[in-house]
Amino acid sequence: MIRAVTLDLDDTLWPVLPALDQADRAVDDYLREHWPEVARAWPITAMRELRARVTAERPDLAHDFTTQRRLTQQHAFAACGIADAPLDALWEIYFAARNAVQPWPDSLPALERLTACWPLASLTNGNADLARTGVQAHFAHHVCARDVGVGKPDPRIFLAAVARFGVTPGEVLHVGDDPELDVVGARRAGLRAAWINRHGDAWPAALGPPPELELRDLGELADWLEAARTTR
Q1: From CA 118, how far away is CA 190, in angstroms rounded?
Q2: With the C-alpha atoms ordered 112, 193, 151, 50, is the resulting torsion angle positive or negative?
Q3: Rounded CA separation 152/172 (Å)
Q4: Sequence-ordered list of residues with C-beta below 8 angstroms from that of 82, at least 6 positions apart, any chain
Q5: In what order do the strands lie in the sheet with 172-176?
Q6: Cα 73 to Cα 86: distance, rounded to the nearest angstrom
Q7: Is the pLDDT of residue 231 over 70?
Q8: From CA 152, how far away is CA 181, in angstroms rounded?
Q9: Mind giving me the DSSP string for the chain?
Q10: What is the mean pLDDT of the chain?
């Protein structure tokens, strides 16, 4: 019996790339206006390449996208001879734009249906903010990699979410779009898994057997859960 549900956020409730792109543009606009020398030295493409280098050099921060980004900005300013980078201002600009997401059309109606019957927890490697994205009221808990210290597919982040509910792993259904991070990670931790496959992708055979549930969107998830609830 499923007694609780964990949901991935980025690319499960909303497409994340548009939000990330608009966040990078917002930071670039700020730099062009207030720090033109930094903007010239570090246009968006160069800033992204620097972020990738920071990520590669700091594997200890693989679970912490926020600190990765702040370090990137600090390095960019330092390379321009500016020791005191306006990190808080830059972060607020980035964070506001990054959380201006547009949920998939099925997401909010499905969340209403799910919340009526099951406790939900968001389970994410990213740094989306439930309040700023407008979905906080639907979730009893928020579990993110930065707080736990590890990210998906590490079983520990899934078990941290299970502990919030006070149930066993087999009583929790994890739902997400990423075959390895969400499905394989959840199964390794003993949770049940549902794959939201919006684009009709083939299941990667190298990851083992496909999940017990493959759904096109969250509306199908709500349909399945409601049917399972009435027939148990």
Answers
A1: 19
A2: negative
A3: 16
A4: 35, 38
A5: 141-144, 120-124, 4-7, 172-176, 192-196, 213-215
A6: 9
A7: no
A8: 5
A9: ---EEEE--BTTTB-SHHHHHHHHHHHHHHHHHH-HHHHHHS-HHHHHHHHHHHHHH-GGGTT-HHHHHHHHHHHHHHHTT-SS--HHHHHHHHHHHHT-----TTHHHHHHHHHTTS-EEEEESS---HHHHT-GGG-SEEEEHHHHS--TTSHHHHHHHHHHHTS-GGGEEEEES-IIIIIIHHHHTT-EEEEE-TT-PPP-GGG-SPPSEEESSHHHHHHHHHHHHHH-
A10: 96
Q: CA 58, CA 66: separation in Å to the nearest integer?
A: 13
How is residue 96 written in tokens? 């506001």
Q: For the domain 4-15+102-231, what is the CATH superfamily, name and number? A: HAD superfamily/HAD-like (3.40.50.1000)
Task: Count the Cβ atoms, other than its own, within 10 Å of residue 55.
Answer: 16
Mean pLDDT of 131-151: 96
Please give the class, per CATH, of domain 17-98. Answer: mainly alpha
Tokens of 203: 């299941």
pLDDT value at 64 more than 80:
yes
Token pair, residue 87, equals 């990190």
Name which of 39, 41, 66 is nearest 51 in CA terms.
Answer: 66
ω into 103 cis (within 30 of 0) = no
Span 161-173, mean pLDDT? 97
Instruction: Give the pair of three-digit tokens for residue 39.
Output: 């903007």
Name the segment(s) of the chain with CATH classification 1.20.120.1600: 17-98
